[in-house]
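Input sequence (391 aa), recorded before submission:
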Amino acid sequence: MNKCKHFGRCGGCSYLDIPYAQELAKKEAALHEILGPHGSLLEGITPAPSQKGYRNKMEFAFGDEGKDGLLALGIRKRRSFYEVATVEDCELIPNDFREIALHVQAYFRKTSEAFFHRKRHTGNLRHLVLRRGEFTGQILICLSTTSNLKAELPPLITQLLELSLDGKIVGILHSINDGVADTVKDDNVCVLWGQDHFLERICGLDFIISAFSFFQTNSAGAEVLYRLVRDMSACATPRLAYDLYCGTGTIAQVLSPGFEKVIGIELNPDAIKSAQENGRLNGIINCEFIAGDVLKVLENGHDTTGNFQTAMPDIVVVDPPRNGLHPKALTKLIALSPPNLIYVACKPESVARDMAVFIETGYWPIRIAGVDMFPRTPHVEAVVLLRRNDM
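Predicted structure, C-alpha cell format:
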C-alpha cells in the first residue's frame, strides 16, 4: 500500500500504511475522545474529496539526502536539521509540484550552489514555495535564497516555463533572506516573471492569493468545510454575521448571500486588503472588512479609522489560530453575547478547551462535525455550533 520510500522518516504522512477508511475511523475516535462528554454530538467526519495530490501549497526546503550527500529539495525529515525527503513518490502533492521541484533540484545540482547551513550560516539555497489553484490550475513559484546567490536564474525561468504541466505557471518570484532563522520570509520579494499572485475558485467565488497570504491548503476540502459552516449558519436570523479572524475573507464571502451584512475582522492589514479586493472581484457589496486586533475591535467598537461601531450579530463565526481564542478575546466574545456561534478549529483540542468556557457562561453545543482536510496526516478540522441557552 505504501509507495513512498521516505514514509516513516519524512514529516509529512502518518497513515500511508493503512486504508483510508481505517484512517477516518482513527480520526473520528480521536476527535470523539477530545470532545469528552460532548463526543456524542459528533456527526462524524466528512471524508476529503481526494486523498492524493490535494495540497495547494508546499514549502520545500533545500538540504541534502544524507550527511555530505547530494543537494536535495523536499520535506524535512523527522529529527533532522539538514536532511530532506525528496518528492519523487510524495502522494500529498500534485504532479505539477513534483515536476517543478525535481527540475529546480536538478538545475541547482549542476551549479556550485549549496543549501543554507543553519549552523555554519553558509550556502545560499533556502526554500522553494509552490502554490496552485486546484480549480484554476494557476501556479505561483517563489524561490528563497540569500543575497549571495551566484547561479543565473533566467535559464531556470525559461526551463520552468517549458515544462509540460497540468496547470499553468502565472508567476515566478525571488525572495531574498539573509537571516539566520530557518523560515520563509515575505519581505524583499521581487517578481522575476509574470505576476505576484494566482487565482483560486471556491464555492463559485474567485480569490486572489499572493505568495504568502493564508489560504486553506486543500481547496476541495475547503469547499466542504465552508459549505458546512454555511449550513450551520442557516439557524440564525439572516441579518448580521461576524467573521472573526477572517483572513482574506473566504468564509465571510461564502456566508454573504444568506445575510443582510457580514463583517470580517482580521489583524493582518494585507489580508484585509486582499479580502476587500476579492469582495470587489466577486461583486459582493454586503461584506465589510476591518483591519485590527479582534480583541481591541470588539472592546473599542471601532477600527483604527473609527468607522466601525459594534452591533449585536445574529451569529459569530470564529476561525482562530491553532492555539484557539486568546483568553481575553474569549471573554470579550462572551460579553458580546451573540445568540449563535460557530467555532472552526484546525486543532480540536483548542475548541474543546474553549467550548468548556462557553458552556460555563450560558452556551451549549448544538452540532459538532469533523472535516478531513489533511488526508494521510493525523490532523482533522472540527466545526462546532453553539447556541445561547436563553434562545
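Checked by second reader. Confidence is low (pLDDT under 50) at residues 302-306.
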